[in-house]
Each structure stands twice: as structure tokens, then as C-alpha cells.
Fold this sequence. Notes:
Blueprint lengths: L2 H18 L32 E4 L3 E2 L4 E8 L3 E7 L9 E7 L3 E6 L7 E2 L2 E5 L4 E9 L2 E6 L7 E7 L6 E8 L5 E9 L2 E3 L7 E3 L3 E6 L10 E7 L5 E7 L4 E5 L4 E10 L4 E8 L5 E8 L4 E10 L3 E6 L8 E18 L20 E4 L6 E7 L8 E7 L6 E8 L7 E5 L4 E5 L8 E18 L2 E6 L1 E3 L2
Antiparallel strand pairs: 1-8, 2-7, 3-6, 3-9, 4-5, 4-8, 9-10, 11-17, 12-16, 12-18, 13-14, 13-15, 13-17, 18-19, 20-25, 21-24, 21-25, 22-23, 22-25, 25-26, 27-32, 27-34, 28-31, 28-32, 29-30, 29-32, 32-33
Amino acid sequence: MVGEAGGVKRLWTLVVLAVVATGAALAPAPDVPVPEFAGQPEAAHSPTASASVWYCPWVNSGADRDAALLLASEVEGEAVITLPSPIQNESADAGEVILRGPGSRVVDVAGIVRRGDAPGFVEFDDGPAAASSVVWAPGLLTVDRCVVSVPKIWHLPGGTTREGISLTLRLFNPFPNDVKVSINGTSEFGPEPLPQFGSLDVLGRSWANVELDPVVPFLDDLSLVVSAADGVIIPAIVLSAGGDEATWTGTGLATTWTFPVAGIEGMVSSVALTNPGVQPATVSVDLLTAEGTLVDVTRVEVAAGSPQRVDLSVLADGDYGIALRSTAAIGAAVVAEEGPAGDADGEDAIAVAGSARFAATSGADHGAARWLLPGAGGVPDATSTVWVYNPSGETLTVSLEPLGVRDLPVEKLVVGPGSLGRFDVPDDLAIASYRVDAPAPVVAAWSARADGAVAFAAGIAVES
């Protein structure tokens, strides 16, 4: 935000910070818990690094764009990459790479196949290990962590079909059996049943792209629920206004969500919430800054079975994160763009065509002492920043270990209690990812900037 409004907002933030620094409101946020959801099988935790198969739905390497799979591992091992063919019964394209331990590789998808859409999966023979994917072109950059768990029900808040916006739902079926998929939605107008998508067949080892803006146009806020009746599916949303793109995969539900990167200088952000339950949810938003946590900067009630978008640009600008605390299990996603800010209820938080940059990310539903950030520092022609949120009441010295194909010096980042730490990754071709190691649970994420494009990426926790 620029001009007088931006100055007022910055002044408001500084005044509040000055007041709360005395102990009235600025305080370390409580440790991020791991919520329990008895009887809610769809409530899957955010991904944790493992020696397993990672599914990457949004990959596209063609004539006008490039893509890479970003791999990071704590141990030496082999990773096998499989990219199913769009032609039914044709063999998949595949590649293998060796990772040192700890180490990282950036695998150019064009080195395996260049044919446009190329969702795939990565199988690590040992771990902890994790994967992300990146797609880039002039004025375009989108990054997303791949997923390791495949629940039956996925929640995808944050969609919009306003004029000039392209909204695509990618349905990726990496498994050999065909699957029947159901898509339902809710918007600011209530349920959006989407009857034409009530029963879609996605063939084994294939994918389908569902264009939503022609079907349900002019919606400010669209939240989707994707379920599979006789198998599993991996969905991802892709949002674009003709230039840069943003993508994020579906998640489960949680009562806490943390986004170490929610806003950066020059971008207008909102957090999209969805409450599929039968009771309303009261959601408190904490603002995470380098100076500390501003607790309860706003509180909203999300009606049962409804989405709601909170415009963060009226609360802060510049660099910040957010943490959510809800009285009921919700889904959440942060969407940022370059464009005018909306009003307090988020009505105009998503701009129309002409926005130059988009970014989006899912959050973390729990903290961890170690994180893998596959791709941080390794995105071609982009600069990366690592963000670490310390929810504890003590100052933490966090180790940031760059990963690549050789040993690299470890950096130290001091993060105050309840504060957000920032580390700008040096321009070094040897760096492909980062490992974050802290003496207490933290939450880590990263972002990347290129000419005319920006991307947010959630970190992947390493369980002890």
C-alpha cells in the first residue's frame, strides 16, 4: 500500500508495537500445537519429510515455460522421478538422481520430457527427504510443496473467479486405478453445488484440468471441497490473471495455522478461510513481525459451511506472517497479489486482470525443531528468502544449512521470542535448498522473487 493510507497504517502498526512492547499486548504466541480431530478422517496434518512418495500436481514444461522438481534429503539416497504420459497406456517418462546426505538437487523437467503439463511423483529410497516443484517463465514464477499424504477429502480455500481471473483445478491421479471425483464449492453467496462436476472420472496415471471461471464466474471468494469415492486424488488450484501464477494444493483441517510468509513489500495479501463444519468458527488472527507477535489484530466469525476472506492489507504492509487460532477446525490459504487493497471485509482483496504478480501458500498446522525447504535458493534466476517464526518465549539461535551437491557453511539466525526472522539467501549456484534446525519448535517457510514474479512456499517439517 502506498500514499497516505500506507503511511497511516505503518504509523498505526508502529504505535501499537510501541505500546505492546511494554507487555500489554506484544507477547510470544503460544507454542503451535498439533491438533487432534477424533472422528474427522479428512483432517490430515501438513506434510512431514519422509522416505516415501511425494506427489507434485502442478508441473508444466513446454515451449513457453520451464519447470523443475526441487529435492532435498537429510541422508544419502536415490530419488526416482516418474512423469505419467498424457496418452493412455503409454509408458511414463522417468529419471533417477543421487542425493548426498544431507544434500539437494534441482531436476530440470525438460531433461526428462518437455511436453507441457507434466504432473509427477518422486520416490525417495531413504529419508527424511522432501520435494517441491517450480514453474517459471518471463514474468511468471510459481512454487508449491509436493504432498506425501493422500486423504479422501481435500479442502481448497482461496479461489476467485472475478472478471479477468483464470481459475483452474488440477486433478492428478498418480495411481494405476481410475478414480471418480466429486467437486463441491461454497462462495460468498452460499453453496455452489457444481453439479456438472459431481462425478468426474480421472483415469489411472493421468490428470484433468477443470476450468472454473467459465462455470461459476464473478465470485469474489470460492472455496472447494474435492473428494474421491473409489480411490484418491491430488488436487491443486492455479490462479492467474494472464501473467504471473499462484498455485497451492489442498489441505486438511486444523484449529491452528501458521504462515511465516503472508505479506511482503509491494504485495497485497488476504487469508482465505473455510469452515465445512456444522458450527460457526471464531478465528483470531495474530500478526507476526520482526519485533514480535501482535496478538488478536482482528477476529472474525466464519459461519458453518461457509468461506470468508480476511483482507490483511488493512492490518499491515511490508513483510509479515500470520498465525490463526480457531474454535473449530478450518482450512486456510494465503493469497497475495500486486494490486489495490480491498476494504475491511476483503471485497476487493483480489484484483482484476492486469495484476503483475501473484503468490499463494498453504500453512503449517504444527511446529517442529527441523524443517526442509526444498528449492530455497535453487530457483533459477530468482532470489530466495527464508522466514522462521519463533513461537516460544525464549530467543532462539537457528541453524540454516544450505544444501546442494557439496558441503556449504552453516548460517546462524537469531530469532527473538514471538518474532519472525528473515534470512536472504546469497546468490550461490551451489545452494539448492535449506535445512532449518532450531533448539525448540519453530515454523519455517520461504519465498522467491524474479523479474515481474513472486512465489511463496511452505516448509516441510522433519519429525524427530
